Amino acid sequence: MLWMEETAERRSHPNAMWPGGRSVIMLGMNYGPDENPLDGLKDRSDGLISVYARGDDYHEVIKARLKAIARWLVEETGCELKVFVDTAPLMEKPLAAAARLGWQGKHTNLVSREFGSWLFLGSIMTTLEIAPDTPEQDHCGSCRACLDICPTAAFPAPYKLDAGRCISYLTIEHKAPIPREFRKAMGNRIYGCDDCLAACPWNKFASEGREMKLAARAQLKRPPLAELARLDDAAFRALFTKSPVKRIGRDRFLRNVLVAIGNSSQPDLAKVAAGLLDDASPLVRGAAVWALRELDPARIAGGPPASETDPDVLMEWTA
How far apart are CA 295 and CA 265, in angstroms? Predict the structure, then answer.
């Protein structure tokens, strides 16, 4: 086992997925936050971005580290290898557990005795023959903290996740309007959700991440919803340069922001939402209608404009 700064490298079981492959080296990087992410749920006038997405894109940061290790391995051994950071259909969490980086908790994410729930994972497939580590044991016991805190009840059972109910999936991967049944539960979460990770008791051993590129940018810690709702495409791209948030695009992001505005109980934000009723994106227009129905229904009492033809937006108007 090697520890380089806060990057943990361990060996996993022999790999049969890569032709000629022998072993998978799993690595984890700590990204522990400098505050409890759950504290950000208190002020509904601000948006809450998942801890992992408040700094630079971890894919690029970790890939650079993996390539540095890979170059060293090739120079020392002449082996063949490939590096991966969410760039192949690898079961990274089971592999990391097999490599003794941690164990898969009841929330299905990896838990480390040293770093709690705050670990990014990367892997190196190599032709080297490396003796496997002993898998880490499960240390969750009878604890249900991560299951019970989930706002949308996305865990039908311990160690099982219904992705279609997960706020991280809904705010990042889901491309259509947010299903109505989950909107209130989203609160002010506008990109991802850290609740199940933050609730884990093993975080009492966690430490703040030291990789500066992953450190939270001040403007992304608790950005005001009113400012985010005014972003055009250029401003969105500028704010989220080098950020993983950028990949979902301005329209999907503003959909999330408007759901948070609808949950804010802040009447002064109704004017901001009203300004997006004629947005070019139907995804944004529909979310604006919902937000106004929650904050100031009088603003949409007259019904949809004659120019509105999108079926999803019209459904919001007639809900």
Answer: 7
Concatenating the DSSP letter of every residue in 43-99 gives: -TTB-EE-GGGSSS-HHHHHHHHHHHHHHHHHHHH---EEEESS-S---HHHHHHHT
132 found inside a domain: no
Neighbours of 113 (CB within 10 A): 11
Same domain, 163 and 280: yes
- Of 43, 86, 133, 138, which residue is the catalytic one? 86
Question: Cα(57)–Cα(41) distance, rounded to whole angstroms?
Answer: 23
- Domain limits at 197? 145-212+222-318
pLDDT over 90, % of the chain: 80
For residue 38, tell me if it sits in a domain: no
- What's the number of domains the chain is made of? 2
Same domain, 120 and 248: no
Within-domain flag for 136? no
Q: CA-to-CA distance for 221 and 216, rounded, in angstroms?
A: 6
Question: Does residue 115 contact residue 32 with C-beta atoms inside 8 Å?
Answer: yes
49 forms bridges with which residues in the sheet?
Answer: 191
Question: For residues 86, 281, 315 and 179, what is the CA-based torsion angle, rounded to 10 degrees?
Answer: 20
86 is catalytic: yes
Instruction: Supply the pTM of this predicted model.
Output: 0.90
Task: Answer whether 146's CB lies under 8 Å from 105's CB.
Answer: yes
pLDDT tens, residue by residue, 78-133: 999 999 888 777 789 999 999 999 999 999 999 999 899 999 999 998 998 888 88
